[in-house]
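WARN no homologs supplied; continuing
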Amino acid sequence: MTGKAKIVRLGVDDLAIARAALDLFGEVFDDRATYSGNQPDDAWLSEMLGSVDFILTVARDGEATVGALAAYVLRKFEQPRKEIYIYDLGVTESRRREGIATALIGEVQRIAAEIGAWVIFVQADYGDDPAVALYTKLGTREDVMHFDIPPA
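OK structure emitted
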């Protein structure tokens, strides 16, 4: 619990809250077309929420979703271990600096320990100083290059 926000992991029956998380990402990232314009149908979303390889945690203040974190569990080929990739993390602008992002990551850390994950990793964009500061506080920085390769 952070302030009035409660951190919860969503499951198959939490479709409305998952859709609110998608809308929150669209607002926070100023990309409503991607996150709200073509959301998956209920069957797809329910399957994702029920998968052991997907994690969606949210910060709730009453009925409002004020933060969300989406992550993927990656099963490794070279060793029998798992890694967790934080794909999206966002907090409503008016609720920032309350520890909500840290609490969302804390819940993923708890889940990682529970499933025996080796590491949690996340990337941040140059210039996104708040994200870089948060991740620096919580982990070790590695400078890597990222490439987007289109399908054939």
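Residues 6-138 form a domain with the Aminopeptidase fold (CATH 3.40.630.30).
OK
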